[in-house]
Structure formats: structure tokens, C-alpha cells
Amino acid sequence: MFSYCRKGRRRTARSSFAKGKHDMSLITDMIRRKSVAAMQQETGERSGLRRVLGLWQLTAIGLGGIIGVGIFVLTGTVAATQAGPAVVLSFLLAGIASGAAALCYAEFSGLIPVSGSAYTYGYAVLGEFAGWVIGWDLLLEYALIAAVVAVGWSGYVQALLDAAGVHLPVWAQGAYGSAPGRLFNLPAVVVSLAITALLAMRMQWGARFNTTIVAIKIAAAAGIVIAGAAYVKPERWHPFMPFGMHGVVTGAAVVFFAVFGYDMLTTAAEESRHPQRDLPRAVLLSLAIAMLLYFAICLVLTGIVPYTTLDTPAPVASAFTAIGLPQVMVAISLASICGITSVIFANLLAGARIWFALSRDGLLPGWFAKVHPRWHTPHRTTVLLGTVTAVASGLFPLDELAKLVNIGVLSAFIVICTAVAVLRWRHPDLERPFRTPLVPLVPIIGVGFSCWLIWGLPSITYWRFGLWLVVGLLVYVGYGRHHSRLNTSGDEMAAVTESSS
Q1: Domain spans in the chain, listed from the N-terminal domain onward
Q2: Which is more confident, 217 or 11?
Q3: How far lies 49's CA from each of 270, 307, 429, in Å?
């Protein structure tokens, strides 16, 4: 009897010890990280991707992600309902907050020029699990943006076709449930698959295409500003802040989601010819050009018509119609379609490379990390992500799911800003091609503004985001932590080196 009890106690003790050991092993796996030096050393030797992107092609990817159709919508609606002519200050405030994150992205993109963007940066500084969470988060973000924007592209194209007297069959005009008789959004599927094919085949072709449509978009936006400048009446800017400073700040929270997207270009680090030089420049240049265009549109729009008239679905178009320039509608339609196309391109490019980086590091199956032997593109992740985007945009109304995009990108900003401050404290002497100024003040601004915006999101967004993270946790515990490259002897040494420093 006593012998049995002693054996039982020993078994219980062994079980508790094994459980404790397992828990410690999980924690150790979650916080392990690869050294910055190891990542820098591998930059030129592990990729298989072809370095074909110059500064302006990278900048075009950033501009493609930042400037969408929102430039022709948000500027007017925020002016009419929240900020008045001071909408330009709303964009300035949002630009400062977004610029804080951009400066942090610029430092990391020069320091660790590796595909993966925020995932890679978080992995190197905050540990494997933090990197996994942000990578898993960005996969959802980029796929959702591409799908939702493809649906918007379909709406603009169908409007132009209807104006030309060409009508699609009712069943092909939209997803099931979006309107009676609709079953499938054919134009959204076509554009998603076309851009997927372009990205999968040759990066040079995709980059040239994207640079061309971004140039058309910017030229059209600049043309609208030039055309409207002659009709500006400065007296329309008075009162400048009819809703007070509170309205300006509220407007900044709304337009903040129109001033990010530069993070997408950093996912193409291993396809850049001179990543340590060009990536930081492209991040800052793309945000600067976008902000100049936003400021100009805001000033012209509120200067040619009373701001109170801009609360319409197409405020820029209605404003120019009101001053007798309806022909500007052609430029607006062209710029809108080009703008939306470049957003789809940037998000599919970024999502495929995040997936590629996760798989190459072993956190997802390595089959996805194969590079095409002829085209030198991550063709498997590109085709799979593009197919998912096409099916989603064709079959599902995605308006509500699109709200997940907001919390996803803000979470990435928090990780990046935090990681810059941590790495400066941990390794202040690392050679950095670009240094974020005023650390830790700039990272604190980025984190603070992102947390404030997350706080204001609808509660349903938290539930959906939490559910996605729970799925990600199960994938990591069940697969990623066991197959991580840091479990192999060579990469484990990199992790040990980093942990001991």
C-alpha cells in the first residue's frame, strides 16, 4: 500500500516536472530570435529572387499602396463632416503619426534588407512568436485589402462600361447577396488573376506595369490640382476650423488609413538592386509624395466649392461639375482605376512575400518557399494568394471583413516602433544605413497614435482579429515551433549568439 503511494507520488512528480519542462520549452521557442548579423549575412545568399528593382520602382510600389481611390473620397467627406478646410491639418497630423512609423520602417529596411518586412524585423528583435504573430496578421491584412479593393475596381469599371453602353450579365456583376440576381463578381476575379499572373511570371514586367499605372495616377491627380487651382477662392477657407481642433483630430483618425502602405515596398527587399540604400529612401519618398498630393487636393477642393457641399459619394467629381468642368470626370475615373489597380498589385506582392518568408523560416511548410527556376519569383505563394483573393472577391461581400485591415496594420506599426527602440537599447553600435531620429520619442509617437486608433475601432473588429490570432497560435504551437529553422543546429547557433548578447 505504502509502496504504491510512493510510486504514485513519483509518477505525479515526474509528470509535473515533464509538464514544467514542456512549458519552459515552449516559452524558450517563443522568445528565440536570429541575430541581425546572421540575417545580414544571409541576405545575398539564401534568396533565389532576382534583384531587378531600382529606387523609383520601389517608390512606385509604396505609392501604389498608399494612394488609392480614397484621395478622391476622404478628402471631401472629412472636410464636409469633421474638419472643414482644416482637413489639410488632419492629413498633416495623420502624416506625422504615419511618418513616425515610416522612419522606423526606413531604419529596419536598411539594417535588415530581407523579404518579410515587419515579420522579419519583429522576429529579429522581439522573438519568434512576436514575428509569427505579425506575419500571420499581415497575411490576413494583405489578402483582405486585395480582395476588397478588387471589388471596388469592379464597381468603377462597370460604371465606365455602363456609360459606354456595355452591360455585363446581371449574374456577373457582383457577389451573391449583393443585389438580386447577382452570383459572381467576374471583373474582380479577372483583375485579381491577371495581376497574380503578372507577379508570378516576371518581377520586371510587374514592376514596369505598376510604375506605369502609378505614374498615370499621379499625373491625373496633379492635373486635377492644376485645373482646379485657377478656380480657388481663398475666402472659402474661412472659417478654417469650423468644427474646432476636436474635428481636426477626429478627421486625422479617419484619414490615417489613407496614409500608410509604404510597408509593402519593404517586402520586396531581396528584389531590390541596392536595398540598404534604396529601401529607406523609397519608404520616405513614397510617403512624402503622397502627402504632397493629399495636401494639394485638400486645398483645391475646399477652395473651389464650399466645404459643406462635399459630403457626397464622389466629392471631387461633384466639385468640378459644380464649377463647370465635368470633363475632369474622365481624369478622375482614369486615376481611380489606376489607383485601385496599383493597390491590388502592391498587396498581392507584399502578401506573397510575407508568406514566402514565413515558409522559408520553417514556420509554414517549406513547399511554399520554392522560387521558380526560370522566373525567379515566389510563384507558389503568389498563385495561391492570388487565387484566394480572386475567389473571395468573386463570391463574398467583404465590407465588414475589411475592418480587420485597420487593426492589422496598426498592430504592425506598434511592433516596428517598439522593435526600433528595443534594438537601439540592446545594440546601439550596429551600423545603420538610416537612423530614425529622436529615438525613443519618434517610436513612442508611432506606438501611441496606433494604440489610440485601435481603441476607437468597433468591438466586432477585436473579436474577429482575436479569432484569427487564436488560429495562428494553434498553427504555431502545432507546426511552426517544431519546424522552425532555429531548431536546426546551424541556425540555433545564430539564436544562441543573439540571446547571449
Answers
A1: 55-496
A2: 217
A3: 7, 49, 30
